[in-house]
Design brief:
Number of strands: 7
Strand order of the largest sheet: 3-2-1-4-5-7-6
Order of helices and strands: HHHEHEEHEHEHEE
Helix content: 25-40%
Length: 233
């Protein structure tokens, strides 16, 4: 199983960047954080598209919602880190012989480079006709709906929080329509107190609801993940 101790051994990285002409100070700080982040380095070593792959790995190790044969929808999938893990765990690309084959559909506004075992669709999930398009692509009910959707930052913390809660609510409402009995919903939210209606709806429709901040989330980030299991069809 994945553990934080599996990440990096040896001395801690300490990369300092000099300011470059035309590059903002904020960009330099972001680059330094990326270069000094052990999860970014380990993602490159493991061949994952992003450090966020470790978040879904950690959540799956704890809640066990991905397994061979499971059908998954990944909303806000770019650049593909969660979809990679889903494909491996569900055997959607026959990574494991003599196991049930799963299904993984990734949806995002951006183009995502192909991943074996994953079907990608460029789509704005907030478009009025998007839900019906996605239903047509999945064909039948799903076992897992997971959302890492996030709006472009406005620079205003409260506004960004409300936007991400809205995205999460849209994803949850769609999950209510397509999940199999006993299914699981996972979504990223930002801690801020505006998600009470979302929590209420999830508790009504699922047997258990947990709110988790994975070790792989940056300590200075307000993100957390809601994991709802046992969908009541």
């Amino acid at each position: 199983k994945f553990a934080s101790s599996d990440l990096i051994t040896g001395r801690k990285l300490k990369v300092r960047l000099k300011s470059a002409k035309g590059r903002k100070i904020s960009s330099t700080r972001w680059l330094e954080r990326q270069l000094n982040d052990p999860f970014v380095l380990q993602a490159k070593i493991e061949g994952y598209r992003s450090r966020s792959a470790f978040k879904i790995l950690e959540l799956n190790n704890k809640f066990e919602f991905l397994s061979p044969g499971v059908r998954v929808l990944d909303l806000g999938c770019a650049p593909g880190g969660w979809s990679q893990i889903a494909a491996e765990k569900t055997n959607s690309a026959f990574f494991k012989k003599n196991k049930k084959q799963g299904f993984v559909l990734g949806v995002d506004l951006k183009h995502v480079e192909p991943i074996e075992g994953v079907q990608f669709e460029i789509l704005d999930f907030l478009d009025n006709n998007a839900p019906e398009k996605v239903k047509g692509l999945i064909g039948q009910r799903l076992d897992v709906v997971m959302s890492d959707m996030a709006p472009s930052s406005s620079g205003h913390k409260k506004t960004d929080h409300l936007r991400i809660v809205n995205l999460c609510e849209e994803a949850a409402n769609f999950a209510f329509e397509v999940l199999e009995k006993g299914g699981t919903f996972i979504a990223k939210v930002l801690a801020g107190g505006a998600e009470s209606s979302l929590q209420k709806a999830l508790k009504k429709n699922f047997s258990t609801v947990a709110n988790v901040k994975p070790m792989s989330s940056r300590s200075d980030s307000s993100e957390k993940f809601v994991v709802a299991k046992g969908f009541r069809l």
